[in-house]
Structures are given as C-alpha cells and as structure tokens.
Sequence to fold (173 residues):
Amino acid sequence: MSRIDGILEPWRETIGGDFQGYRNHVIRMATVSLMLSPCNSDDQKKLEIAACFHDIGLWTAGTLDYLEPSLPPAEEYLKAHGHADWVPEVSQMILQHHKLTPVADGQSRLVEVFRRADLVDVSKGVVRFGLGRGEISQLKKAFPNAGFHAMLMRRTGRWLLKHPLNPLPMMKW
Fold:
C-alpha cells in the first residue's frame, strides 16, 4: 500500500475530490489481482503501477475515452524509476483492462489477471472469478468505495449526452 500511496500522491491535486475513491479502487484492484494470482515482487510492482495509472486519463484528459491518455503518465513513471522494460506489459494491462472477453494474446498472464481484478471491483463483487464473497466484502469494508462508482456514473451520463453513438468508448471486445 505504501508504494501505491507514493505513486498516487503527486496526482492528488489533479484527481481532486475523487482522490480517496480512486485510491481505494486502486488498492482493491491490486489486492484482488494478488488474490487471483499470487505474484513475485516484480509482478506485484507491475500490478500496483498499472493499477495506479489505469484510469488516470479520466482526470488528465478529462474524457471517458481514457485508456490511451492513461499510458503517458504510466510510461513516464516507469522510465523515471528504472523500469522502461516494463512499459509494454504495463501498457497492455492498462489498454486491455476493459476488454469484455479474456485476453488470450497478452504480454503476460498479468494482463488477464488485471482485467479480471478490475471487473471484480467495478462489478462490486458480483463477478468474483472464484473469490469468496467474504473476501470481497472485507476488502470493500477496509477500502470503501468513497464515491468512486458514483463518479463513474456521473461521468458516463455526461459522456452519453455528448456521444450517444459511442456510449462506452473504453470498453473493448
């Protein structure tokens, strides 16, 4: 968690009032990723970094079409911290995290793990990929939603008014 807090803190002002909700979403995602597939320390770092940046384009670009805009901050962070070789894998985790079907051609198994973890959290535990209700419930209690899903719904509503023919641009087949 301290790594996540360290990565996110410089973004506090950019994220503004949504910061706590996003932070908790990131922590839940990273935790669910590890619950779905225990990892070595490098893979855990990759998952945590991807989680920190996966939705950042919502605020940096101010758009619901935020997958591509989320990549540059992640890439900058990775390069600044000596992990340029992780850019392709972390980028694919970010780009594929809203894919509706399993990722079969990912850079690594982490891409699919990350996709599943986001789906567990966005569905509020309705989709669990074999995880227990109690595990998810404890995680949600420890790191409450703090308005994250409500913010997503408001942004989606505003997007729909302007782009009715492209209602969910971040979703991928």
Observations:
- Residues 19-36 form the longest helix (18 residues).
